[in-house]
Structures are given as structure tokens and as C-alpha cells.
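Case study 2.
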Amino acid sequence: MNQLARLTIIFALLIANTGILAQEPDPELETKNIEENFDKNLSEVLHNWYLKSMIKDTTLTATQDTTIPIFPDSVYLKRIQNIPSAIELNYNNIVRNFIHVYSKKRRERVEIILGLSNYYFPIFERIFDQHELPHELKYLAIIESALNPRAVSRAGATGIWQFMYGTGRIYGLTINSFVDERRDPIKSTQAAAEYLSDLYNIFGEWDLAIAAYNCGPRNVSKAIYRAGGKKNFWDIYYYLPRETRGYFPAFIAATYIMNYHELHNIHPRPIDLPMVTDTIQINKKLHLNQVAQVLGIPQEQLEDLNPQYRKNIIPAVNTTFSLKIPLEKTKQFISMEDSIYNYKKEHFFEDKIIKNPRSTRYVHQAPRGKAKLYYRVKPGDNLGYIAEWYDVRASQLRYWNNIRGNLIRTNQKLVVYVPKNKVNYYKPVNSLSFEKKQKRIGQPVEKKNTAIKKSKPNDNYIYYKVKNGDTLWDIAKKYPGVSQTDLIKLNDLNNARNLKVGQYLKIKKKT
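Prediction:
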């Protein structure tokens, strides 16, 4: 089973087989939520230090043509067709409505987005390129947050890519009282790239993956089911949640306006944010104000470069975190590192401000008498299969690996505990093919007892061959003085209900 099939099954299991009638379209209402969200996030980002002076400068566009040109549908269609994109970009009246939002109603705000894009888009493009994803996915961040790293939705989705808490944790983002990596432009983009890759592997089409990024794969799967199995955004349009109907059209319109903004007399506003920065690895507690005051960096600028630190504290205790600073300050930081850490240390880290935080790494309790093995998740694997291959329960795998639900990712490293006397049997599982692993299910005890039968007989034991319908209780009754517990211990059985026909059980003779 490949990764696509695995993920499809996972989310297909969530689908409720109940039909819902399609709602009648209302293009204006379907643009309203996205437009309001765009305004809200951009209004919040305007409070950032690096934008305040820019907004006050009314001379920025004084020499530019500010007329609003009007174009027919044929021009929009032709331009969209000319955009080089790995994602199919369609044009219709819904897309046109969003183009008008960006090119007419929200022109000044688009100018700010264009200015912010000069800082954020190179970050997005580099990461998407590493994951071999279409670069134009970067425009999703405009719809999600208006490039505001501190954006928070009514539902609690946070950051430029608007991750919910659970999804952020699944994709490796640290979220605690001091750090929220959903607000880290680099790490959240890494997580978004992985999530988008997984969604594309589920649906096989970018329009559906983009819709699922907004409303979740379950809702898209439901819409596909209710549309009779059709797998195209416009075919399932009326079966999607209302707020998601406008999401993909808004993405197309954002892609259009970012490519043709000059033809609409919309020009980027410059922002006072360093375009070239450096990243310093921090391994001690550090307050952003310590850095700002010693290096002479405006405190607000440092906060805007490092929005992931909720209280301006880098809690680097028994772990390492990154600090982004302007490139020209790197040598100064290195030469004054000790002075920075010690600057007003007692003031910034008095007890009422911060306690020494414990590591947020999850640590499970290892079972006694068991040996630890590691399994690297392969395409097509799921928790049920892996549990069967190691003769453990799926709930044990979740506990040992801090997994919620059933979602695992290719190349994820899982901890598995097995009996110490069976390490040599289970150790090869990680390198076997899927077919060979499936053939091993239920075999360890059987093979072991077959070997016992063929070995030199021991006069102290007799051997019983399991028949169809046998239970341990039935077998124990055949031999006076023998209990089910005796059989379990003597034959090292993991599951008393998992007897196999033809399996041999060793039974101690009674003297």
C-alpha cells in the first residue's frame, strides 16, 4: 500500500455517510469571510514596528499613477492563462469578484502585502523548492494571514500559515508558554510544506489539497462523496463548507494580482525590515531586550524578526533555539556574547518573570523486561500494520511515541518494545518488504514451537498441537493440574486469544 492509499484510507474512515443537500451559491457572501479575515490580519500587522513609519508616509505613491483601470473578462482570462503554474488556475465570476477585492476595494492593503512579500516570499520559495512543491503555493499565506506572523483566527489558528494547535504539534512545531513556532516564519513554512505534501498525496490534485488546507481533508472527502466521487474543486464546489468555496478562487485571484499588480497601478510599499539577516543558535536563557540593549537594535524590530517568542524570552534550557538578527550585527553578537547573556540577568530572569522551564520533550515510561527497537515508517504503513508486525497493541505504539490519533508520516522513527528473548526475531522487521512483514503476522510463537517439536524431546514436557476452536481454557482442562497461566508463562504467549491452528504448546508433565 503506497502513501496515497494509506492517507486516503485514514481520512476516508472519518467520513460520515450522510447526505447533505448542496446550498445555493451566494458569491458575495462567500467572499465576505475571506475579505474580513484579510482586513483583520492586515490591520493587526500594521501595528508592527517596521510598518508604522511607512504607513504615515503619504508621499510614497504621490508620483505614481493611482487611477483604477478596468479590464474585461477576456483580459483577466488571458493573463491567468499566461501565468506559469503547476496548479490549474481557472477563471470565472467568483475569481473575478476576488480580483476586484484586491485591485479595487483593498488596493492600499495589497501595496503593503507586496512590500511584506519582498521579505517573506524568498523564505517560502526556498522551503517549497526543497520539498519540490509549486512555488505559487506561497500565495496561500496571503489568504491565510495577510503575511501576519501573529495572526490568530477565531478558532485559534495561529501564524502566517494558520496552524491549529493539534496540527502544529503533529508537524513538529514547539508550542508552550514561551514559544509558539506556528509564528516562526521558517519553521511554520516547513510544517506547511509537509502538510501540503500530505494533502496532495491524499487527493492527487492541487485544487483539492488547497481546499483541504482550509477546511480539513475530512470535509473535502465528504464533498467528493456527496458529489458522486468527482475530484475537481468546481465539481464539488456546492458541497464544501461555505467559507471554503471562496478559498481556492481567492488563491487564484491572489496569484493573479501578485503577478499583474503593476498593470492595476498597485506598487509595493517599502518596509523597514532587514532583508538580510543571520540566525544565531542560543543555548542559554536569553531575553530579547538583553540583545536589543547591548547591540543597539530597536526592541520592536527584534520582536518582529522573532515573533515566535511569546514573552520575548528564549527559554534555551537543556535545548537550543534560534535568534534572528540583522546580518550587520552578527560579528558584534559573537564578540559580546557573554556580555549579552549577563546583561541585567537578575532583572530579566527574576522568579516572577520566568522559572527554569523543563524540557518539553515527551518521555514515556519504558516497560520492564522489554528491549527497545526502532522502526522507520515506510510509504503505505499504518499503526495497525506496525502493531501486528511487532505483536503489540496500536495503543501501546501511540503511548510510546506520543501519537494522537492514527496519523504517522513517512520516515518517522517509532519506538517499539519487544520481549528481550525475541529481539533477534523482531529486529529485521524494519528492513523487510511489506509482503514479507505481512507473512510474519502471528508467526513468532508458531515457529518457535515448531522448532521445539523438531528438537530433541525433553522427557519433562509434552507437546500439544492446537486444533481449530481450541482455547487455552480447553487445553488446560485436558491436563490435570495445569492452568491457563501455566500455559501462558511456559510458552511466552503475548495474547491468550491469538492461538494459531497447528501451533505447538509445551506442557510440563506432572509428577
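DSSP finds 25 helices and eight strands in the chain.
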